[in-house]
């Protein structure tokens, strides 16, 4: 073998590990994406916007039981800052604002669906591995 896992092109020798562990490596990029979707309400917001292409914050507030207006606004702003959601202000009175997924937000859907498939296909009900520790 040439020192690389052919399936994922992951370096297995020390000189190639920079591609995974370096500041611009795979780990850094995956960590960045995880931080974008980290937060109790971000995934529910994204999935609601996948289901309905444009929603007002009042509809999101109604569809996500338990979320406060403050947290919804905070998470929407963070998703917008990360480029996953677009805020569209129609500059009307009364105020009318809608949220839509950006192109990057749409490109994230297959990743989230792959995570869902992994979760549903992963063995459930496994014992806590820490329970076997002495």
Structural description of this entry:
The protein is mainly alpha-helical. It has a domain at 27-113: Arc Repressor Mutant, subunit A (Orthogonal Bundle). Helix content is 49%, strand content 10%. It has 6 helices and 4 strands, in the order E-E-H-H-H-H-H-E-E-H. It has helices spanning 18-21, 26-37, 42-51, 57-63, 69-81, 103-121, and strands at 4-5, 10-11, 85-89, 97-101. It has a two-stranded antiparallel ribbon with strand order 1-2. A hairpin with a 4-residue loop joins strand 1 (4-5) and strand 2. It starts with a strand and ends in a 13-residue tail after the last helix. The relative contact order is 0.10. The model has no long low-confidence stretch (mean pLDDT 84). InterPro entries: HTH_ArsR_DNA-bd_dom, HTH_HxlR, WH-like_DNA-bd_sf, WH_DNA-bd_sf. GO terms for molecular function: DNA binding. Residues 20-127 form the HTH hxlR-type domain. It holds the Pfam family HxlR. It comes from Rhizobium halophytocola.
TL;DR?
This protein is mainly alpha-helical and 134 residues long.
- Mean pLDDT, to the nearest integer, reads 84
Total strand count, please? Answer: 4
DSSP helical segment count: 6
Q: Percent of residues in beta strands?
A: 5-15%
User: Which fold does the CATH topology of the domain at 27-113 refer to?
Assistant: Arc Repressor Mutant, subunit A
Which stretches are low in confidence, meaning pLDDT under 50 for 5 or more residues running? none
Q: Could you give the order of the helices and strands?
A: EEHHHHHEEH
Keywords: DNA-binding, Transcription, Transcription regulation
GO molecular function: DNA binding
Domain HTH hxlR-type: 20-127
Pfam family, one: HxlR
């Amino acid at each position: 073998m040439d020192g690389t896992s052919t399936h994922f092109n992951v370096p297995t020798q020390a000189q190639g590990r920079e591609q995974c562990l370096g500041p611009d490596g795979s780990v850094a990029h995956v960590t960045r994406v995880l931080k974008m979707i980290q937060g109790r309400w971000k995934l529910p917001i994204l999935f609601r916007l996948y289901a309905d292409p444009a929603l007002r914050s009042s509809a999101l507030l109604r569809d996500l039981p338990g979320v406060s207006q403050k947290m919804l606004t905070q998470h929407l702003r963070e998703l917008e800052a990360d480029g996953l959601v677009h805020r569209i202000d129609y500059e009307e009175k009364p105020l009318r604002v809608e949220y839509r997924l950006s192109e990057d937000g749409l490109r994230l859907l297959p990743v989230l669906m792959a995570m869902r498939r992994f979760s549903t296909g992963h063995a459930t009900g496994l014992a806590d591995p820490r329970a076997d520790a002495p």
